[in-house]
Write the structure tokens for this entry.
Amino acid sequence: MAKSKISVTQEFLKGLWNENPILRMVLGICPTLAVTTSAINGVTMGLAVIFTLVMSSFIISLLRKLIPNEVRIATFIIIIATFVTVADRVLAAFYPEMSKALGPFVPLIVVNCIVFARQEAFASKNPVGRSVVDALGMSVGFTLVLLVMGSLRELIGNGTIFSHQIMPMSFQPWMAIALQPGAFLTLGLLIGFANWLNTKGKKK
Amino acid sequence: MNLILIFISAAIINNYVLVSFLGICPFIGVSKKLGSAVSMGMATTFVMTITAALAWLLNKYILVGLHLEFLQIVSFILVIASVVQLVEMFIKKVSQPLYEALGIFLPLITTNCAILGLALFLVMKQYNFIESIFFGFGSGVGFTLALIIMAGIREELELADVPEPFKGAPITLIVASCLALAFMGFSGII
């Protein structure tokens, strides 16, 4: 790995596009599909992931020399689960309605491949500063995709974005986009579109 | 009768993959060949049934009994990790070819969100012990069903002329969208 050859800014930016967890690596699909029925749900979920990923990357890269290699997976899971519990309880205490809307998907951040993959691939091998920047880039990239998906599905399925009416009143909402089939379809088209953009960029 | 309803509801009406969006990673990752889809489905069903029983006991007698509900997430994930470890050792002992066929996907069941989701749903729905086991088994069967249907379609899809950017995950998601549309037809049966 070209360690420390790329600048901190690039470390952050790679999460947004080149190594975007959803569009390029197809990780963490379950919450992406489930919570993006509206823009606000997507963003809340994204914030919970930012908190969990940044905090666990910070702790794990601090402890990276202390954690024995054989039990690292169990250790990572416990550290991640701790921060997820914090996020889940805070959400349930201050935003009970949002917590209900997201259902089991906040506790399920524990088994979100993105969080685990960053610990295994990055935080356990790199210094604290870099790991936090990497975690921030990845989780912001994740949140942006959730925001785009949530806005698109809310716009087509309900005619609104963040509950503001965008479409004219005569627009007949496509309910199916806000339901399960729409989730699969929107994500499939988004990933396809990202692939197309990427190959087009390379040819130039 | 109630048990049969729980089973059908978990397997078809609230199908984990196509209706509740749980366990999408293996659904996309392991659905390329019918054979590996079947074994992955079986391993998952097995883990799910055992997890349902253990999670119920753990929740009822330790977490609720000692007022430790806030430890739910941490303790469930530990139970799941140990069950998966046991299943892995069991399969390795009984069938070496199956063990090699499942490969990396067996340990990955630990991070299959369908399993943790199952444990969390159990607590939410307040089933009793027997109902929990049926719920776990039904969920596993539903997961296997979705995986097998998808694998069947993807084997045919290999021959289709898919535009280059849509090969792999995107076309799988679009096919899944059609399947989800079909499964929506089941809603409201019970």
Chain B has a mean pLDDT of 86. Chain B has one domain: 14-182. Residues 14-182 of chain B form one domain.
